[in-house]
Amino acid sequence: MRKYDSVFANDLSEAYRHDLNALCRRCLTEVNEIPQAEFSRQELLSVEIFRRRLSECIEQERYRWYLMPINPAGGWSAAFPVIGSGRGSHPFKTVRNLLLAVALGGLVACGDGKPSESDTKKAVAAKFDGCKSISLSDFKQIGDAAQGNNVSLYFVQATYELSLRLDKDQIDRLKDSNQMINVRNDIKRDCPQVPDDKIYILVTKGADGSGKNAVTFDHQNMWLVRTDNGWQLRDGL
Q1: How far is residue 25's CA from residue 223's CA, in Å, rounded to a whole number?
Q2: What's the domain of life for this entry (predicted)?
Q3: Do 127 and 193 meet the contact criterion of CB atoms below 8 Å apart?
Q4: Strands, E, within 94-206: which ranges?
Q5: What CA–CA distance (Å, rounded) separates 162 from 185?
Q6: For 92, which of 82, 97, 156, 190 could close a Cys bridge (C-beta 3.0–4.6 Å)?
């Protein structure tokens, strides 16, 4: 069974719409701050498509689309039968798969509640497993975790420090602005689970003579989901 089989987002709720709009605005701001000279022609095309999607995400809030949950073009009234049939995003191969997904939704309610700061830190630290270029430190959760629209889903804010360590070759290449993209790609290959925006900030700020650089990220939003293997980071970092 896949870990998200029992997780369903209530995309009509006020909390969901608020968080979605805030996410799209934050991402659009960050994208607009990136110098276009940093991108190749292919990357520029991807950025423009991404920017348009984010703008549409922000614009749609004006039209209160959530007041029409069922429409001729589709909606959950059409999606649920597809999901239940196993022909959609949850292709259950056996009856047991489906029953486990339903049972999981009930079992998580018997757990010990919201994730602790230790749980959150462990879930975030897992993103850096095997990553030699970036390390996590000074992790602090801000306030208590807030339950989302599912008993296994929680919203958390945290502040932490990421430290970048470059080798001599990478330090030398950063002296040439044209090589910055290649250095970022090096880091991405080494740390594939770390978001691109974090890598961009760390590399852009450069490093000292020892090849080290540390950046504090304040009030970072993230979603944690409870699985059979404990709390895991679903979105954000």
Answers
A1: 18
A2: Bacteria
A3: yes
A4: 134-147, 153-165
A5: 18
A6: 97
DSSP conformational letter for 205: T
Task: Give the mean pLDDT of 113-120.
Answer: 84
Q: What pLDDT shows up at residue 161? A: 92
Based on the fold, state whether residues 140 and 191 are members of the same structural domain: yes
pLDDT reported for residue 36: 81
What is the domain range of residue 164?
Answer: 112-237
> 65 and 50 in one domain?
yes
What percent of the residues of the chain are helix, what percent strand, and what percent coil, each to the nearest 5? 50, 20, 30
- What backbone torsions phi and psi does residue 163 show, to the nearest 5 degrees? -115, 130
Question: What confidence tens digit (pLDDT) does each residue in 136-191 have?
Answer: 999 999 887 877 766 678 888 899 999 888 888 888 887 777 888 888 888 888 88
Q: How many domains does the chain have?
A: 2
Asked if the model's pLDDT at residue 102 lies above 60, the reply is no
pLDDT tens-digit series, residues 188-210: 888 888 888 888 888 887 656 66
Which residue in 139, 129, 127, 133 sits closest to 195, CA to CA? 127
Q: Spell out the SS3 assignment of 170-204.
A: HHHHHCCHHHHHHHHHHHHHHCCCCCHHHHHHHHH
Element (H, E) at 25: helix 14-33
The verdict on 84 and 121 lying in the same domain is no
- Residue 109: is its pLDDT beyond 50? no
Write out the two tokens for 147: 């339950």
